[in-house]
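Reposting from the mailing list since nobody answered there.

I have sequence plus structure tokens for a pair of proteins and want to know whether others read the tokens the same way I do. The first protein:
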Amino acid sequence: MLTGLWQVADMERDGKPLDPDAAGKALGEYADAGFDAFDMADHYGSAEILVGRYLAKAGRGHARAFTKWCPLPGPMTPEVVREGVQQRLERLALPRVDLLQFHWWQYRHPGYLDAMLELVRLRRDGLIGHLGVTNFDTDHLRLLVKHGIPVVSNQVAFSLLDRRPAGRMTEVCRATGVRLLAYGVLAGGFLSDRWVDRPEPTDIPDWSKSKYKRFVDTVGGWGALQKVLAAAKTVAVKHGVSVANVAARWVLEQEAVGAVIIGARLGEREHRGDNLALFGFALDAADKAGLAEAQLLLREIPGDCGDEYRKPPFLTASGDLSHHLAGLPRGFAARAGVARPERTAVDSGSRWEPIAGYARAVRAGQRILVSGTTATHGASTVVCPGDAEGQTVYILDKIGAAIEALGGELDDVVRTRIYVRDAACAEPVARVHGRYFGGVRPANTLVQIAGLVGDGYEVEIEAEAEVSR
């Protein structure tokens, strides 16, 4: 179990930082009770500073510091990445971050791969103990691992209400050895004894509850939550534990989960004694069956892990992130056509574009045509060499970025053509295509060809779009 410090930001939202002495005392009480791993982030108020001051007094080895770096998309040069890590080290007053977890807002901007490759170098330099990611979806977590990035963990929402990680994410974790650090396991406190048989609240006092009330509404509302709480209460009474213990234990027993994260409001209230009970019992078959029966009444949270930060329904403390995401830098920039200025075009930086005299994509009127696209990162780096599934993910992000730069969206795509080197890869490639275009259903052709130009390439895709707007 990790002690999460997201609540520090909520406690400081009036602009007044927490008292470092009082916070340090509270952190020490957690560590002394055995809860000696603290999870935080660059935007969790002064959490990093508070942990740094605590460790300076208690000693570096007295607790582990897990933090996150969540930069805005943009060029991830070695200087930018090193500065981001250095800020974490300075705030924590540590020579090394035990676990640095990376978040990325928009996969169409390929800078995340540059950032992760540089973080690997900084890990070799001794500034980082281990590398993790946070809120990465299944396809992009797999892409990183297949590209050789030594990711050990992915921090995602996982609870009795939100079971998205139990699907493909668990399959990828099983295959790669990545472990999940699960947050939201108590749904902001709604999965606890306090809310059993209680009326739906009209006033939401903090960011955490405002976030997870959106989850409750999405899965079916207050009535559906009460059904789950009733089932959890039955299990809790049977084992002599709390509803929160049952909710956290259910997540902890999921195959891919390495740890659950329980939030703390330092100096306000603590549940250390109750949390320790989590390790004194296990769910038996009857317990799991009762919880599963209640879960049948729940609607599934849409999408994949982390999608709430990138697409509707935006189940975050901030609510609708459309404006924020619309303001992020795009992966590519449009330019005027060379011989036909009324056309617009996009270049991706591939060394072959100027050599062969073509653009990544061209817009002529309402039509956008995207050239055959391979998993080439920057000028010549092959992404996931030999792995068709990972290459397809990168290619479709690249195509999406090109179309977006020219005023379109993937929803505007009317035709795709896919060329695979090995027919055995056709199904995994097609499944990725389905995850991107399942709601669009463009015309499509997929063929095996004798060979793609260039070592390591398994897939090439081209696309056409009609922009009616």
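The second protein, same order (residues first, tokens after):
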Amino acid sequence: MAAVPVVVFSDFTCPFCHVTEAALRRLEDEGLAAPRYAAFELHPAPAPLGLPSADDVRAALPLAEELGTRLNVPRSLPRTRKAHEAAKLAERKGVGRAMREALFAAYFGEGRDVGRIDVLVELGAALGLDATELKVVLDVDTFSGAVDADRALAARIGIAAVPALVVGGGADAELVSGAQPYAALRGLLQEKGGREAPGANAPGPA
């Protein structure tokens, strides 16, 4: 069975996105999922930030524990545009998955501010990215247009909240909203993988 394409709309301050991406990494390792990630900034400027939701973290805890994923209530709620831009560069450099995992771990595991450029540069450098290049890319908004394009794609599909997954390709593609248990995602991918048409393409980030 071929891996099923999954377009993942996600934000790094969303605990449900954190557990969803953890499940998808496991499914990718099992050869069932071929995820591609699209940026969805939950709290874009100039909207007020507020505080992280302890209720949301508690609600996501059972899924996190099932996956062995660390999930604490963060101290603050940062903007994530720069984190999404850093993830775009990391994807281009071949360490996109590792960068996403590091961003979630830094925020939900260590309580770090993933909206700060210095934090993003440190995380990227630990994965082998050139620190100077990453800082310049973030300073000059190199991937800002790509982040906007992902949000525009979400609007065209009708996505207003994350996590949201477009599972499968072509006419068989299915929109799945909200965090799903690992077993449910696995069952859906197995079902889709059994009837994916050769050459079918899911909508993807621009």
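Reply #1 (J.P.):
I read it the same way you do. Confidence is low (pLDDT under 50) at residues 196-201.
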